[in-house]
UniProtKB/TrEMBL annotation:
Chain segments annotated as transmembrane: 27-48
Lineage of origin: Bacteria, Pseudomonadati, Pseudomonadota, Gammaproteobacteria, Lysobacterales
Top EC group: transferase
Recorded superkingdom: Bacteria
Pfam families, alphabetized: HATPase_c (PF02518), PAS_8 (PF13188)
Name of the molecule in the record: histidine kinase
């Protein structure tokens, strides 16, 4: 390019010298300037044409990247500083292309998982139209047909009545489809989230029949083992002592009969209480809630078991089934005494919290390890030699029947806190 410029300058100088011989000086100067300017413009134009093509190519690839097409690259074989810009641009394109490929592969994997999961999944937009329905949802709600684009209300209109009723109730929950002899149990879960700035709802229908059947069988087996164990523990000594009593009577050793009969009575009473506790757990009625003053309730509770109270506020009134809650708290307070805690360290704390009332039963026993904490609220789980495993389970049933919850946690410095929260 420099050589061309030099040659052009020499040619311009020669032309200027020639014109100067035949024309006046000022005309010759103007003509010479015009000739030189035209030649310089031509030289500059020839130099800028490739760069203009490069800039157009860069603008085109950027537009393609914006549209999601990363398949373009630029070739530039001229020796200049622009080669670094071209290489950086091509490297960006390669990186975007690899990221897009990885994203597409993840989307394909996610779609495969969503479509083939046994959980029926339906995504509904704010207008209540179905955006996505996987294969399980098509089979359950659409008789195998596609659900996308259809009004969710129209799909529900042709669904099983039990499904319609479950959605009509709102929120999460379980429901049964089919007859009593051939039924399937489902769990409905509903979650809302924002997608592209709009609120969508994700509906999940999971079949639990097989899982619940397995759990039911395992629970019945455990119930039978516990009942058999308790019955054997009581009936075996009763039978043995009855036989011994008959022998004592036959031998005329009447003085030893009262001890044998007392032991028989004790084991019979224990068995009676065991069966009564099971019946109470199995037949727990729905709570009959009514306004109850905490001060009066605690005073009544103190006549049956000893504890130190903490009540805030003093004149608090809550709504619950007094008989059921009393039954739950007596079990918890007795457990606290049985933990080895002295009577003056067994505390019952009742205080008002934003979401209702919190009731804490606190002791200074040895607490529970992680395995016991994870299982203590399950029915029939007990670490006591003669425990039925129903005390904490019954407290949980009563709390949840009131719309509340129960939790266990170890205390700093030793001991256990059993916390019940009841709604206002």
């Amino acid at each position: 390019m420099i050589a061309i410029a030099i040659a052009g300058s020499a040619a311009a100088a020669a032309a200027t010298a020639l014109l100067a011989r035949w024309l006046p000086g000022w005309i010759a100067a103007l003509l010479a300037a015009a000739v030189v300017g035209g030649m310089v413009a031509a030289i500059v134009w020839r130099a800028l044409v490739p760069m203009r093509a490069l800039f157009r190519a860069l603008a085109g690839t950027v537009a393609s990247y914006r549209d999601g097409d990363f398949s373009f690259g630029i070739t530039w074989d001229k020796a200049s500083d622009l080669i670094e810009l071209v290489d950086a641009h091509n490297a960006l394109g390669n990186a975007l292309r690899e990221q897009r490929l990885a994203l597409v592969q993840r989307e394909l994997l996610l779609d495969t998982m969503v479509q083939n999961t046994p959980v029926a999944m339906v995504l509904v937009d704010p207008a209540q139209r179905i955006v996505l329905g996987n294969l399980a949802a098509r089979r359950m709600l659409g008789e195998g047909r596609r659900l996308e684009g259809r009004a969710f209300e129209d799909v529900l209109a042709t669904a099983n009545p039990a499904v319609r009723e479950a959605f009509a109730r709102g929120g999460d929950g379980m429901f049964t489809v089919g007859s009593e002899d051939d039924e399937d149990i489902y769990h409905l879960s509903r979650r809302s989230f924002r997608l592209n700035g709009r609120i969508h709802e994700l509906l999940l229908l999971r079949q639990l029949t097989a899982e619940l059947r397995r759990q039911e069988v395992q629970t019945w087996k455990k119930v039978i083992r516990v009942i058999s164990h308790e019955l054997n523990n009581s009936l075996a000594p009763i039978a043995s002592l009855a036989h011994s009593g008959a022998e004592l009577l036959r031998r005329g050793q009447h003085e030893r009969l009262p001890a044998a009969l007392a032991t028989i009575e004790d084991r019979a009473r224990h068995l009676e209480g065991f069966i009564r506790d099971y019946a109470r757990f199995a037949k727990l009625p729905a709570p009959r809630t009514e306004p109850v003053a905490w001060r009066h309730f605690i005073a009544q509770l103190r006549t049956q078991v000893q504890f130190v109270e903490e009540l805030q506020p003093e004149d608090g009134i809550a709504r619950f089934d007094a008989a059921q809650l009393e039954q739950a708290l007596i079990n918890l307070l007795k457990n606290a005494h049985e933990s080895g805690t002295s009577a003056d360290e067994v505390r019952l704390s009742v205080r008002h919290v934003p979401d209702g009332w919190r009731i804490d039963v606190l002791d200074r026993g040895s607490g529970m390890n992680d395995a016991v904490l994870a299982n203590a609220l399950l029915p029939f789980y007990s670490t006591k030699r003669h425990g039925t495993g129903l005390g904490l389970a019954l407290a949980r049933e009563i709390a949840e029947a009131h719309g509340g919850r129960i939790a266990l946690l170890n205390r700093d410095g030793g001991g256990l806190c059993v916390s019940l929260v009841l709604p206002s």
